[in-house]
Amino acid sequence: MATARCAKFLLQKSTRGFLFSPRTMPAFSRPPLSRAHRLEPTDDELYQRTTVNIMQKEGDGTVLVHSYSPAGFNIDGNRVFGPCALLPPAILQWNVGSHEDITEESVSLFHMVEPRIEILVLGTGAKLERLNPTVLALLKRKSIAVEVQDTPNACATFNFLMSERRVVAAALIPPVVNKALQVTEE
After folding, report:
1. Contact 129, 105 (CB under 8 A)
2. Which of 8, 89, 165, 180 is the most exposed place for a label (fewest CB within 10 A)?
3. pTM surpassing 0.70?
């Protein structure tokens, strides 16, 4: 009611020599805003627009293995020497020398992290090696699926699972070059 009187008064005053901006008129022709009022696209004229400045770009949390060698791995441009544990977005040194050093203690890191990982991809080096059954039983009790592969295939599997946005971790041992198969000239 008061809004209608104001609009009527302003219209009368505008005919007597007062000039009003057309921007102010829509404000008086609408009902007053209340807490339950839904903003419409035209309501932006009444308020300042909100702006957001991104100070630091946040990564999407994916980590990919770009290459591997007997010395270590190239993971998203980071050179990692020796065995490593990938708990995206973290890259950690993993204190094992070979598949024989993979124990319940060395995999304890993977079942203590939050959010809980779904799949652990284990790369055992240049070829697929059997793991201690107690290690696999521990991970099964902790509801972690385990994929044991040679390191080249483990890297590819890890990258594939990361691209599917799965909650995955990897434990990778660099593949050692087997010199027994190299041909030497005499």
Report:
1. no
2. 180
3. no
